[in-house]
Amino acid sequence: MATVRDIASNLGVSAATVSRSLNNAPDVSAKLKKKVITEARRMGYVATRRRQRNGTIGMMFVNETSGPMFSGYDATIWSGVARGASASGYAVTTFDMRQRREGESHTGMLSRLHLDGLLIRDDHQTRQLVEEIAAAGIPSVVIADRFEREDVNFVCCNSFTPTLQAIEHLLHMGHRRIAICHNVLSDTDHRDRIAAYDRAMADAGLETDPALRFAIRADVEGGGAALCRFLSLPDPPTAIFFTDPPATVGALRRAMELDVRVPEDLSIVGVDDEDLRKMTHPVYTAVCQNANELGYQAARWLCRSLSDTASPGENTERIALQIEAILEINKTTGAPPATPVRVSPTGVRISVSQ
């Protein structure tokens, strides 16, 4: 018996397009609907009874930094997800891949758990799993990662441009020794920020010193440790870019403990996912992205595609949305000091010439 995928393969369109054409969706042209229906009849396609929706979607965390005890970035994403699902009349629950039974398919597991679709937070180690889920035809959207595959839906932030602007801002103020402290875990956001840092330095004709690049577990303690590491170098930086909010806060706290004045002695640029920058003193210059909106847009699209409540002209075949981050210049960046600050590993200020 012919299937939706068989019809799609013959016509060179997606299975979602065929499904929406057969269900007379308003965002599919009359010409394409006619073409799909004609091919379906030719192939002897018989529609199966539409699966009953349960009204619940799952939020699956398969990235190392998240899970049942998530906070910060993922908590803000979760808030947006709950808002988007609620607006569409759906409930949302966390979902653990360990609930999958031995030999059970992805589709079978979702059916057993009464879930209509999935929102996914992945990292570089679990991208293959995401692709397997998409290939199985499970309605799903990845949050905060980017894919080239046409069958993988995603919503992410583009922080490349504002990061480039942030490093250029430091360069224009006269900084040349600019360090970067990034997450030891790799994902789209961090790869974009590192690439933008490298681009800005290269465009300025500056070679990046390996000593000015440090990977950490991006928490408050890691940010403080990174600041001490950089400032204990024989030729310390006059500015540091932190690619994560908790690390930025940790660096600012450690600078205060060491009596390193920001920005008079050291400029700091960070990243913010919500309003954390407004809670520090001084308010830090930040690459700002809206994590709540990421969750909202992903949940809204998934729920609307499941319930066929899309507005005329709205694309529910695929979502590949990149939300632009922005650079907000605040109080932690200034001109480089005449003499860079140097601190011993024990926290004692020392002369840079020693």
UniProtKB/TrEMBL annotation:
SMART domains: HTH_LACI. The keyword Calcium does not apply. Residues 2-56 form the HTH lacI-type domain. Pfam families: LacI (PF00356), Peripla_BP_3 (PF13377). GO terms for molecular function: DNA-binding transcription factor activity; transcription cis-regulatory region binding. Keywords: DNA-binding, Repressor, Transcription, Transcription regulation. The keyword Transferase does not apply. InterPro entries: HTH_LacI (IPR000843), LacI/GalR-like_sensor (IPR046335), Lambda_DNA-bd_dom_sf (IPR010982), Peripla_BP_I (IPR028082). It comes from the Bacteria. This is HTH-type transcriptional repressor CytR. It comes from Mucisphaera calidilacus. The gene is cytR_2.
